[in-house]
Each structure stands twice: as C-alpha cells, then as structure tokens.
C-alpha cells in the first residue's frame, strides 16, 4: 500500500468538523494527500477528498476508524465512477488521480477518522 490520508470528523454545536492531518509520501514523492479541514452540520452531507500519485495504480480503499479502534473497510474502487453503499458513496477518477468519499445525512456514528489508501504497483 502506498500510504494513508486521514480525516477526523468531530461534532461541536451541531456542526461536524472534518480535519485531515496526515500526508504520507513514499519514495519519488509519491503518496496520498487530503485537504486540511471541512465543516458540515448534523443531517447534512460531507465530502472527503483524496488525491494520490502512483507509479501503477491497482486500487483505492476507503476506511473509517473510530478513536481507539481498528480501521473498518468502507469501499474499494478499481474502476472510474461512483459506488454507493448505505449513506455513503465513493468516487474514483484514475485520469485525475482523485477520489472522494461522500457521507450523506451525517450522524454521531460518523464521528471518526476517514482513511484513503492506494495500492501502487511497480512494473
């Protein structure tokens, strides 16, 4: 796996704050990046973005991780397009080296870190 980018969803006064704090770079400057902050109200939607650089893309994973817990698998994207599961959707554009996770109707259970991981194959 190339690297992880993470975002933390926090609730304060009926607002959710998504704070992304980790950028991991591999050799040759490759890695995964996410923006630093996003805010949304409870019941609203929030979009977590992920941009990556790889030598050979083999897939992109999204995980949710609650404090003190292990990451929980949300989705795996290999092909371009939108995949919907429950109240979230994941989108992948290999051409733009970009993905996003869209969380709809935010609830307290969404208070977590969101991890984007890319598999980089070396040819």
Automatic annotation (TrEMBL):
InterPro entries: Ig-like_dom, Ig-like_dom_sf, Ig-like_fold, Ig_V-set, TCR_variable_domain. Keywords: Adaptive immunity, Immunity, Immunoglobulin domain, Receptor, Signal, T cell receptor. GO terms for cellular component: T cell receptor complex. It comes from the Eukaryota. GO terms for molecular function: peptide antigen binding. SUPFAM superfamilies: Immunoglobulin. Residues 1-29 form the signal peptide. It holds the Pfam family V-set. Residues 29-123 form the Ig-like domain. The keyword Transcription regulation does not apply. GO terms for biological process: adaptive immune response. The keyword Signal applies. This is Ig-like domain-containing protein. The lineage of its organism: Eukaryota, Metazoa, Chordata, Craniata, Vertebrata.
